[in-house]
Amino acid sequence: MKGLLIKDLKILAKQKKFLVFVLLLMVLISFSMEDVSFSATYTVLILSMLTLTTISYDEMNGGMLFLLSLPANRKTYVKEKYVFAILNLVVAAIFAFVFGYVASIVKHANVDLGDFVTNILIVMFAMGMALALAIPVDLKYGAEKGRMLVIGVMAGFLVIVVAGYKTLAKVLHIDVLEEVTKFLSSIESKTLLVVTMVGVPLVALLLVLYCSYLIANRIMTKKEF
């Protein structure tokens, strides 16, 4: 798996122009907007999706057949993609935090670190869920078709969530956000509050990624090249 990780890092190294563009765009957004958290969340969003880029490169010109002829089997390939995705998310989040914090100091902006970190964690969670959906779909249908399907599924999921939220508010008179806020406010222990806000979503994300890994592994085992 180490060789596959090095291969993916080398693929990213070839996209220096794109990464420099992202960095410049971050600088522009950070200093043109009062809220630096937007550029930080944007960074996590863009960098985390680079995992899917490596799958596209692997499929080019019969590259997948060559990779599977090496001492790396299909199960190892799938495992490496998920390890790479998690590493990508963590590195992107750390980079976004450091950059956003430095930008706030340079701009002399007052930043609530709690809200700032919360925004980054929310985007990490959302992108982790998106990758959990996208990786199996990309492996099943290919990078190009897979991406369109993922966009369609995510759009449909968003519509269902919004419709469900409005239905609960209108029919059952339940404001989900208000209820969640009340519940969190009722927790007196700061330690328990942190565990609830960070630990529960993290465990949920890891469970979803693990289920996604099992599905992707099954897809890759049955796939013919």
In short:
With 225 residues, this protein is mainly alpha-helical.
Structural overview:
This protein has 225 residues and is mainly α. It has one domain. The protein is built from ten helices and no strands. The mean pLDDT is 75.
Kindly provide the radius of gyration, computed on alpha-carbon positions and rounded to a whole number of angstroms.
20 Å
Low-confidence stretches: none
Structural class: mainly alpha
How many discrete structural domains?
1
Following the backbone from N to C, one meets helices and strands in this order, namely HHHHHHHHHH
Please state the overall shape, judged from the principal axes of the Cα atoms.
globular
Major sheet: size, sense and barrel closure?
Answer: none
The average pLDDT score comes to 75
Q: Beta-strand percentage?
A: under 5%
Which quaternary structure do these chains form?
single chain
Give helix % range: over 70%
- What is the first-to-last residue Cα distance? 21 Å
Strands, count: 0
Number of helices: 10
